[in-house]
């Protein structure tokens, strides 16, 4: 038998049959289902990766790549800062003093933290603050606040904002909290409402004065690193036993674990769309086998091998499935281009770190989606192809 018989039969069986239109309709539905599944998977994975990347970017900035902090006792001091700067000239360091506070404006209260920093050093380790610091100059008891806090309290530059410190001091027969008014001199916008509302920044001398801390003592040191996972190991090796260093990811382990679980769950659920479409491939091919039983039997009697018959129906399923995958890739990429080019969807800034849809389709996810869909198509084509090759020639020809 000529080898050209296989592609010929594939083309013939793919044609619309007026006597059996439902077979063609079933194949068309399988094609559309796989197209839709691949398209939705590509867009969904790009969105999940985009949000994951955007959250990591914002959290890395506001939580700082690395932070040197004391353990259960001891303190971070100027000697340690100088030692770190000399040993790691490629890194940027910014010492800080912090305190939990209540910000008050009129009758409104908002809890958070105020950091005493050297603004010049801080601008090197925090790009968000760096932009705000460049626009203003800060002196003692001036404060830099987040946009969300500014909007909530309706504050403007040079307005006064009261901070109630958690540190208390004796006052006669009772103890009273420390209260100080700071002048608002700048506004920063990190894109994360929780940080914009909770974090405030003032000069290092202001906080040391308020908390009674010596000028050479700090609560910690913010560190900027392009490769924090590698640098954290190097820094740990030279730190004294009373001091440790933590990475930004250590405070967000559960959050990113939840994102990964959500991404995996979404992938599995959306892959079920392709699996459902594959059932249509199975039903379409089985109906084709039942409808073409006499032709298959005649081909076998004329010398066609069972392997060739199996190949015909395997190719039929592959043609339907692969064409659906290719169409899904085209529509998926087109959808990603439209979403990234045009501002179709606008996100609330107080909830998400960006107002536009972040899209980032990785090569790994693309290969996983395409290969997963292809495996499903091959698996769904195998059973009907096997049944076609098992047609009993004598029984079919006798009944026909």
From TrEMBL:
The chain crosses the membrane at residues 21-48, 266-291, 312-339, 366-385. GO terms for biological process: lipoprotein localization to outer membrane. Residues 268-389 form the ABC3 transporter permease C-terminal domain. The keyword Kinase does not apply. It is a multi-pass membrane protein. Residues 28-215 form the MacB-like periplasmic core domain. InterPro entries: ABC3_permease_C, Lipoprotein-release_system, MacB_PCD. GO terms for cellular component: plasma membrane protein complex. Keywords: Cell membrane, Lipoprotein, Membrane, Transmembrane, Transmembrane helix. It is found in: Cell membrane. It holds the Pfam family FtsX. Belongs to the ABC-4 integral membrane protein family. LolC/E subfamily. This is Lipoprotein releasing system, transmembrane prot ein LolC. It comes from Sulfurimonas gotlandica (strain DSM 19862 / JCM 16533 / GD1).
């Amino acid at each position: 038998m000529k080898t050209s018989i296989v592609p010929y039969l594939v083309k013939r069986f793919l044609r619309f049959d007026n006597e059996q239109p439902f077979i063609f309709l079933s194949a068309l539905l399988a094609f559309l289902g796989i197209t839709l599944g691949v398209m939705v998977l590509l867009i969904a994975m790009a969105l999940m990766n985009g949000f994951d990347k955007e959250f990591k970017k914002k959290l890395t900035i506001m939580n700082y790549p690395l932070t040197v902090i004391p353990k259960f006792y001891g303190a971070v001091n100027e000697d340690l800062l100088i030692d770190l700067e000399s040993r790691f000239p490629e890194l940027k360091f910014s010492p800080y003093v912090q305190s939990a506070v209540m910000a008050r404006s009129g009758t409104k209260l908002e809890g958070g933290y105020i950091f005493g920093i050297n603004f010049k050093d801080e601008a090197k380790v925090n790009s968000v603050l760096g932009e705000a610091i460049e626009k203003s100059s800060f002196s003692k008891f001036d404060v830099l606040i987040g946009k969300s806090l500014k909007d909530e309290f309706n504050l403007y530059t040079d307005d006064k904002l009261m901070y109630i410190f958690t540190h208390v001091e004796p006052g006669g027969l009772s103890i009273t909290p420390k209260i100080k008014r700071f002048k608002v001199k700048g506004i920063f916008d990190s894109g994360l409402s929780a940080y914009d509302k909770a974090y405030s920044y003032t000069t290092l001398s202001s906080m040391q004065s308020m908390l009674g801390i010596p000028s050479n003592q700090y609560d910690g040191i913010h560190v900027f690193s392009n490769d924090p996972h590698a640098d954290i190991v190097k820094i740990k090796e030279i730190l004294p036993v009373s001091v440790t260093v933590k990475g930004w990811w250590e405070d967000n382990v559960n959050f990113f674990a939840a994102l990964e679980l959500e991404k995996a769950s979404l992938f599995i659920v959306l892959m079920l769309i392709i699996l459902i479409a594959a059932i249509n491939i199975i039903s379409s091919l089985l109906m084709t086998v039942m409808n073409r039983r006499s032709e298959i039997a005649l081909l076998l009697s004329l010398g066609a091998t069972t392997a060739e018959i199996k190949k015909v129906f395997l190719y039929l399923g592959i043609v339907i499935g692969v064409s659906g995958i290719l169409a899904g890739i085209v529509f998926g990429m087109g959808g990603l281009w439209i979403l990234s080019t045009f501002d179709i969807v606008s996100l609330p800034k107080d909830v998400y770190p960006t107002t536009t849809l972040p899209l980032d389709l990785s090569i790994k996810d693309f290969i996983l989606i395409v290969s997963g869909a292809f495996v499903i198509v091959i698996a769904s084509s195998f059973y009907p192809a096997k049944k076609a090759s098992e047609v009993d020639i004598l029984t079919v020809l006798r009944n026909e």
